[in-house]
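Per-record layout

source: Hahella chejuensis
name: ADP-ribose pyrophosphatase
length: 164
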Amino acid sequence: MNFHFCPLCGDNLTTRQIDGKARRCCASDGCDFVHWDNPTPVVAMLVEHEGDIILARNKTWPQGMLSIQTGFLESGESPERCALREVSEELGLTGESATFIGYYAFHEQNQLILAFHVRCNGDIQLGDELAEYKRIPPEKLKPWNFGAGLAVRDWLSKQGLLAL
């Protein structure tokens, strides 16, 4: 996010070196606001349903672009609870368990991805954000080299389906 004005006092922001990095800071002498631009925590869910992995396409993405599901961690919510909530909201499924896969820096979006494998049951019903989904047998799933694709890689490796 590129702030131009201080959210505390409304004065202009300026750039200063703090802790060896250029940071957006309030120009007012009486205000010590610093925009730290910390990464946003995002939870990714590698959803397993009836033995398959579910990939989905967000309505804003181009045709053919599919991924595991992701969602923003809400204030006061545990990452595991977020994973189960997002699976319910996006796919209409009930998560049986959420097992941690790993964490991944996604610098392009200034996010920290916390990835979980979620075994689910129920009937798939796409939420408002998704356009389509595809079922992939785990042995045919292919990871990609950024973002949530790194969690797919690590999960496949743990299953003995991919040599690292």
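summary: The chain is about 15% helix and 40% strand. The chain has a mean pLDDT of 95.
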